[in-house]
Amino acid sequence: MESCSASKWTIDQVSDWLRSLELPQYRAKFEELGIDGGLLLQITENDLINDLQISIRLHRHKLLESLKKLKEEQPKNESEFSDSDCDWSSMLLKAIEGQCKYKVFEITHTGATIGRNSGSNNYVINESFVSRKHCEIKYNAGTNQFLIRDVGSTTGTFIMISKKQQLEQNFMFQMGLSEFRVTNIKYTPFGIPFEVTITGYEGPARDTEYILDKNGGTFGRDIENPITIPDDSQLSAKHGRIFFENNGFYVEDTGSTNKTWRRISPEGELSKEFPIYIDDFIKIGSTILQVTFPEECEDKENIALPTECKVCLVAEPNTLCYPCGHLFCSDCLKIITKCPTCSKEISDKVKVFK
C-alpha cells in the first residue's frame, strides 16, 4: 500500500488503508464510489457524512486525522511540477541486462507488446525464458499513467521492490532463484491480520510452506534466517524480510545483491494492470528494463556504453546506480555516494550480470 504516494493509490490500496485503520466496514462504500488515491485526498467531512454515509463522529475524526497525515507525507516536490512536466508523451525502457542490453524501447500513447515472436510484438526479446507474447504496456489518459500487464507468460513479469510493499492474498515475489506466493492470511474478528502463510512457488523453495506471525522473519542463505534456503545460489546471506507494521504484513529487500521482485501474475494467467513509474525496473526473462524519460537517452536503438568503468578505467562496469541507472564497477562504487556521471545521490546499488 505504501509503495507509492497516496495520491497514486488504486481503489484496492484505499481499501487496504481503511482496513489498516480498523474501519473495514466502510470499504464497500468507498469501492462502490470508486474512491482512489486522488479522490481520497480531496475528501471533506461533508463528503464523509453525505456521500460515504459515515454517521459515527469518532470514525469521521479518525479518518480525517489520518487523511491529514497522508497529505503531510506527500512528496514535497510533487506540487513543484507543472501540468506539462507531468504529461507523458512517451516513455523509454532502457535494457540494462540481458540479450538486448543497451537497447532502448520507446513506448508512446498507442502502447506496445513485448515478447519472443517478431511477428506479433512491437518489441522482441529473443530468449528462451520469454514467451511468444509476454506482456503489454498501454497508456491510460484518464490517470496519465503507463500500465503494464502480463498476458499469460510462462516465466512471469516482475517489477523490482524498491520500497516495502504490503502483502495480500496471492501476492507473489522473488528472492534469488526462489519465488513465493502468499497462500493464506489469518485475520482477527476486527479484520487485522495476525498470521501469514508463504509457499514456495518456483525454484529451490518450491512447495515449501512457511508460517510467520507478527514477529515476521528474514529470508537468506545463512542458517540464522527463519526462512533459510542454502541451495539458492542467487540468494544473499540475508536477502529480504517480512514484517508486521501498521496492522499489515509487508515485504522488503534488505540490501541484497540480486534484489527482490514482485511477480505480477502466476504462470499462464493474465495479470491486473500495474502502473509503472520513472526509475522502476522491470524484469522479463533475464532482461532487466529501466523506465526513463525520453530525454535521458539520445539513441533509441542502441546505447554505446563503455566496456570499462569510468572511474578506474580498468574493471568491467557491473553495478548499476539507483535511481539514475549509470554503470560502474562494484569496487569503485563501494566508496561513492553520488553518481560520477550525473551527480545524483545513490540510494541503492544493483549488481548486473551478462
TrEMBL record:
> What Gene3D superfamilies does the record point to?
2.60.200.20, Transcription Factor, Ets-1 (1.10.150.50), Zinc/RING finger domain, C3HC4 (zinc finger) (3.30.40.10)
Q: Which residues form the RING-type domain?
A: 309-343
Q: Which residues form the FHA domain?
A: 112-159, 217-261
MF terms in GO: zinc ion binding
Q: Does the keyword Zinc-finger apply?
A: yes
Question: Keywords, A to Z?
Answer: Metal-binding, Zinc, Zinc-finger
Q: Which domain of life is it from?
A: Eukaryota
Q: Which residues form the SAM domain?
A: 9-73
Family statement drawn from the similarity comment of this UniProt entry: Belongs to the CHFR family.
What name appears for this protein in its UniProt entry? E3 ubiquitin-protein ligase CHFR
Source organism per UniProt: Stentor coeruleus
Recall the taxonomic lineage recorded for the source organism. Answer: Eukaryota, Sar, Alveolata, Ciliophora, Postciliodesmatophora
